[in-house]
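INFO batch 0412 | record 1 of 1 | parsing
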Amino acid sequence: MEMRLQEEKESDVLQRLRRAEGQVRGLQRMVEGGRYCGDILQQITSVQRALRSVGEIITRNHLETCVTEALRSGDREAAEHTYDEIMNLLYKQLQ
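INFO prediction complete | emitting tokens
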């Protein structure tokens, strides 16, 4: 199965990922430069927030497309598989 994002969502997600990538590179430079731990931790929090926001966009998209399709299809096996997938994804998010 492939991910289908609307064009504007895809552009937003890619922009956010590029920003997070830049933040990670900045983190590497901070560590290499011996920066203050508090500053590094603050930057780590920023990266985590950026990735969390991407995860929210992708999760919503997944629910609106793939999950909705599977549940509306009338295919009981596909629905069960989708429920299992959602439970696994939610469980991983809580860890």
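INFO post-check: The two ends are 26 Å apart (CA to CA).
INFO record closed
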